[in-house]
Amino acid sequence: MSGKTVLITGGNRGIGLEFVKHYVQQQYKVFATSRTPYAQVQELAAIIPISQHLQLDTGDESSIDALPSKLKSLGVESIDLLINNAGMLYSDNLGDNKLREMAIQQFTVNTLGPLLTTRAVLDYLKPGSKVVNITSRMGSIEDNGSGKYYGYRMSKTALNMATKGLAIDLKPKGISVGAIHPGFVQTGMTSGNGDITAHDSVALMVQVVEKLGESNSGKFFGRDGTVIPY
């Protein structure tokens, strides 16, 4: 047994579900969240018991604020790895009359969600713990060559900044923080489009997670470990 504990947000489908499968196989104690109740996340329920599931809406601050007490009630004492995976995507552009609303919603879930979730579980993180934010290359200002997707791009750029800030603030506690771009992954978020499966993407990302530490904390990585410009 590894004796380690991992908390994965958005663990009921796509990339999150593959992270759950991987760490269960690695004999971690896996706690996973979803917005919907345990009875409605059948794929996840087939992997972990209800005692390792937490209902969490990362777009709702009150839901995040309730997370520490839920972890305590489930007997969690510490978290070795937090994977902030939950996110959302709108394919917005300048022609959308609800551009503002879509941008705010994506910022709330994709940026503030991981930041507030990390803050909520700080007391469970210890020296040697790691925080991983699943981001996107679409959040790289230097790499943007196609425009559009304003809300998603801006939310991930802001998440990258939050990652850097967290790395600095948590360094004295011995906690490492990294942002990882999974690639264009075939999931429900991308309507099944992409150049890699969620399983294969996660197989690469877990190697990046393994190598994350004090020397490279605060970096923005591709799924293969290469550093992406902010």
TrEMBL record:
<dbReference type="Pfam" id="PF00106">
    <property type="entry name" value="adh_short"/>
</dbReference>
<dbReference type="InterPro" id="IPR002347">
    <property type="entry name" value="SDR_fam"/>
</dbReference>
<comment type="similarity">
    <text>Belongs to the short-chain dehydrogenases/reductases (SDR) family.</text>
</comment>
<dbReference type="GO" id="GO:0016616">
    <property type="term" value="F:oxidoreductase activity, acting on the CH-OH group of donors, NAD or NADP as acceptor"/>
</dbReference>
<dbReference type="InterPro" id="IPR036291">
    <property type="entry name" value="NAD(P)-bd_dom_sf"/>
</dbReference>
<dbReference type="InterPro" id="IPR052184">
    <property type="entry name" value="SDR_enzymes"/>
</dbReference>
<protein>
    <recommendedName>
        <fullName>Short-chain dehydrogenase</fullName>
    </recommendedName>
</protein>
